[in-house]
Amino acid sequence: MEFASETEVAAAGKHVRSLTAALNQVLFGQEELIELVITGVLSRGHILLEGLPGLGKTELVKGLSKTLRLGTKRVQFTPDLLPGDITGNPVLQEVDGRREFVFQPGPLFTNIVLADEINRASPKTQSALLEAMQERRVTVLGQTHELPKPFFVLATQNPIELEGTYPLPEAQLDRFLFKLEVTRNSVETLERIVSQRELGGEPEVEAIMSSEDLDETLSLVRRIFLPDVVANYIARLVDATHPGQSAASKSVRYGASPRAALSLASAAKARALMNGRVNASFEDVRFVAPAVLRHRIVLEYNARVEGLTHNDVVRAILSEVPGQSSATPRVMTPANPG
Known about the structure:
The chain is α/β, with parallel strands linked by helices. The protein has helices at 6-24, 31-42, 57-68, 83-87, 123-126, 130-135, 170-173, 187-196, 211-222, 228-240, 258-274, 282-293, 301-305, 310-320, and strands spanning 46-50, 72-76, 88-95, 98-105, 112-116, 137-140, 143-146, 152-157, 176-181, 252-254, 298-299. InterPro entries: AAA+_ATPase (IPR003593), ATPase_AAA-3 (IPR011703), CbbQ/NirQ/NorQ/GpvN (IPR050764), ChlI/MoxR_AAA_lid (IPR041628), ClpA/B (IPR001270), P-loop_NTPase (IPR027417).
């Protein structure tokens, strides 16, 4: 594989900076959140946004779809939502004089699916997303239907402590590249919102990238060089999340999966491109690690009782695992820099 060149990365960086600036006008005072959302999209990953109602999660997703010129459908997840309501259902129709079942695609058949308040639907309905999020296809009555490309699920959920919520199954959580926490606004940000927004109004944003620009950028991310030492660091981080593998993991019942390691690598490459670099670094991995790992580790009951959070454990692991392993030679230059 030919690695990305500095010229290509610089050209893509212009689009990414414009995209970042546009989304910062949609959601005020959430610069790091927006950077992570863009990183997730460039990694071709699905994103779970968690926060209290009214913090702008849905507006951020809608703004992203407008700036990328991608088709978007919104599904409001409710307790009575059925799997067929999102995947689609076969409908009996008359075809060439005969009555037969014809598949009618559901709202999953688009580029960006906004799964609003995903944890208000039953586990049965949530599980209908598993195949779509992993294989980018759905199977109904034995027939497989490919989803459009690119395909992203950007889901919002309320904190599990709120009434009427169901915890997402671990298998589904693992399919989200990032779990991002949307925090409340500062006084300065609230003042800006009050001054520049009207209740019920939507911020106006322009399209930033065409579908061709997005395809080229997504392909370029895959060509960002991942040094062996960074790959080794990712492997050691994921291994340290398992019980007995680090001091910080003593509070963990189940650690992160191999999918977490792949997610760390993809996200680190995406962030390297966003910062105009042709290779991923230790710092890129550390920046995306909380978003990748926090929803993939299961804590022991005693840890939860003591008030220990997933973020606490991830921070402890990051502080415990060194970037450079003494057993790994330090090689940071791509074989063919292009």
